[in-house]
């Protein structure tokens, strides 16, 4: 027990040091925050502490974007360990809390023209960053604009954020996809624009908060993750899960808000330096607790093939399901009557029909015979 306490203390010290240095950094692979990044219990407490001490977030948005802040507040109400301080047009200085500058200096309802779409909006963003040098992360949330924006306008967004990245190398700019509530041609247009943003982040190792993915997936306590979509022009278009149809806050349900708030904590921990659950593949969690279910891949990213590794406390069958960035199931891998402990299955980057899949981020679900479910992600390179 004493040895374990020393291990936690050392790990905490490392996490806090890395968190204090948080800011823009080069990533060896894209950081994509999706529904697979909502199990806050998988984040070691040391990295929550590091996020609270090291991350200073500038977050601008309109009404849909308020889902994130609503979710963060509700999570804190249930567990004060996830303390957050949200300042409206000001950066809080509360110790032991994730500090967020909400809005711009002149307002808190921020449309595209007030963050990135116009020179005036870019100057509003620059003013926040210039006057608050502690801010090391900045992000802006879509409302419904990508339902009707052209791909040229979507590219303008990418170009504007890229320009800000060049101007502020000490700030990590987080890209976002647009909410998945629209259906029909509007939803399909949004889907195409979201794919542009995803591909930019994948190709250039950027950070993405995938709002649309978080809309489309719901965790059913009885059966696991459920994906919602509709077919249009031959495409399987993600759409907000019916479980999230409501108007309790930010045009959705509190449950949807909390799911996005959990993803914000995952994002903050990653930006503070936590390598993510895929880095912890083995029979023990980082703080030494035995028997924690984990799932990941080595190598990750990979070309050719990778070993998908998972741990479990008992022997039995295991099934690994692989999904693409749009939530489509592409491959199932099985291990029959495997033993307890760390196990692995190989994946060759192909789908169930033997076709080579394109480069991108893929999400993993492992279900063992005892009913335990683990989640992870892997990046395929070409």
Characterization of the model:
With 382 residues, the chain is α/β, with parallel strands linked by helices. It has two domains: 259 residues, Rossmann fold, CATH 3.40.50; 104 residues, Immunoglobulin-like. The protein contains eight helices and 18 strands. The protein has a seven-stranded parallel sheet, with helices on both faces. Strands 15-14-17-18 form a four-stranded antiparallel sheet. 46% of the residues are buried.
Please bin the fraction of helical residues. 25-40%
Approximately how much beta-strand content do the residues carry?
Answer: 25-35%
* Shape, principal axes of CA atoms: globular
If you consult CATH, what is the topology of the largest domain? Answer: Rossmann fold
The largest sheet, given as strand count, sense and whether it forms a barrel, is: 7 strands, parallel
The chain-level mean pLDDT equals: 85
Low-confidence stretches: 1-21, 277-293
Q: How many DSSP E strands?
A: 18
> What structural class do helix, strand and pairing data support?
alpha/beta
What is the CA-atom radius of gyration, in angstroms? 20 Å
Write down the secondary-structure element order: HEHEHEEHEHEHEHEEEEHEEEEEEE
CATH architecture type of the largest domain:
3-Layer(aba) Sandwich
What's the CATH class of the largest domain, please? Alpha Beta
Summed up, the domain count is 2
- Give the strand order, joined by hyphens, for the main sheet: 1-7-6-5-2-4-3
N-end to C-end Cα span: 46 Å
